[in-house]
Model the fold of this input.
Amino acid sequence: MKMVFSFGKPIVLFCLFWLLIFALQRFIFFITHYKEIPDSVGIINSCKAFIYSLRLDMATIAFLVAPYIILKSIYNTFEKRWLSFLLKAVVYLEIVLISAIHSGEVISYFEWGHKLTSRVFMHLSMPDEVVRTADASSILYFIILLIMELGLGFYLLKKAKLFINAPQGPTKNRWTLTSCSTASILVGISLCIVMARGGLQQIPINIDSAYFSEHQIINDISVNSAYFFGNSYVLFNKSDAADHLPNLLPGEAEKTTNDLYTFERTHQNNFISRPKPNVVLIILEGWSANAMGCIHPGNTATPYFDELAKEGVLFTNIFATNTTSEIGNTSIFAGYPSIPETAISLYPEKHRNLPTINEKLKKQGYSTQYLFSGDLKYGNIKGFLMEHGFDKLKDENDFPSGLSKGKLNYYDKDLYNFLLAEINAAKQPFLQCAFTGSTHSPYDHPKASKPKFSGEESNYLNSMIYADKCLAEFIAKSKKSDWYKNIVFVIMSDHGHATPGINSPFETEFFNIPLLIYGDPISEAYRGKKIEKVGSQADLAATLLHQLGLSSEEFIFSKDLMSPTVKEFAFFSTIRGYGFITPFGSLRYNFDSKSILTKDLIDQNAFLKAKKEREACFYQFFKHFQNLDNN
Done:
């Protein structure tokens, strides 16, 4: 027992050492940038950053303590001098790196207004630029701050006595010591893995676990600097999309893309007949248009939706920008295209510079809320939504107790009931958003006694039948409410899904998703109308805002699909590539083969035109993404 305690005690002390270091760094940031913190935040909310930060701090500590556990355990067994030196070198290096990251962040925040990211590598690759552009006071402050943080770290390290040899007890038996060392490593590393992912829950921890405030700077204080920087570094090195940019003449991509996004913005093709209606935006998890009879006639999985489409405005040629929920959400709200190999929701310093639909409506007096039946941490969706100012965000943690729950989320029926209660209590005008979950693998839902579908993708298709019925019941209940007469329902999928015969995420049809705008404020002349123009989910922003009588010019990559002069196309990203869809066919480019793998355009002229526009869009989207945090 004494030997086990001797192995565990320094590890616990090491964790406490880092917790204290992170708290001190947070305090240093706070007092350095206190003038930038709004007065409305208050001391209590500022102090909450030290509490909400704990989970992410512990995840960061897991990465820092793992090498210490391994080296310390081995050293306690063999007591080799070089092992002692290596152990000390690793810990000292960690202190230097953590101090340098935080000191750099404190200084750069004055200029950039966000936490230190991989952007620093672009500057460090040109040290002469850093010297020339940084003023002397900033450099001096960085040096002073770094020395101070290093001094604090080394002083606390000495007080913690982490390098004192562990007493081995009465035995010197090498087998016993080796067994103890091995057990310590296995148990310690296992605990580190659990800590690093934030617990045993299905979705690992993300930076938004430290988010709690509507004020950007408070969330930035709460988020662990080392974790944020490490996450940014991984993202920085993960993608090689920049290596696949097409070679275009100067200005060619900008000119071509500008032409694609030039359309008549003052047209009168308006189907919403009432000013300032309430809006309910329902984001359907993974609904594929290929399983919906109103878009692709056949054996439909959505008979109720098909009936709704007869009374609303249905867009039949809408395509998702990618294949994941976090990208779908950002494309819907920000009208932003998907960038191959990455998700903009993971880059707070970039996406916070984008406009969103809810922000636009808030300026018009709308109250805004987002409801999800599962965990919003996935893909930093929660962080994206929080930073863009939703009045309320609610997820599985806010659902009433006693409800049945699937593996990933509450059932759609309970989501809609919760949504109804929230709408009834909402201040008008409102934007109420709900993100469903029953059509996500493993397709948890109350099973019908006799499933309609069998064979390929039957679990998914049967979950659509359930989700479709829940949607219909929600609409039916809404019709009984006082607010129904002045409400517009916007129903859209976050991404596509495999269906029988279309099971590859590289096929164009895979990306086809529904978009239905429905409700009493829809003009009689437009009810049951199908809009067949080719567009993407990023086009919802401009299309909806025009119908609400609002400008969408700041949504530079979103098209108004009701404009008579709008260009028909959709850009989408795939695994290791991207594609382009026009009314005359589509094509897909692959990074690894460096070639166009699929194309179905009607003739050579259509192919050459689509190829040019595809290359221009990818080039312009990527450059815009790169420069989003250069404001």
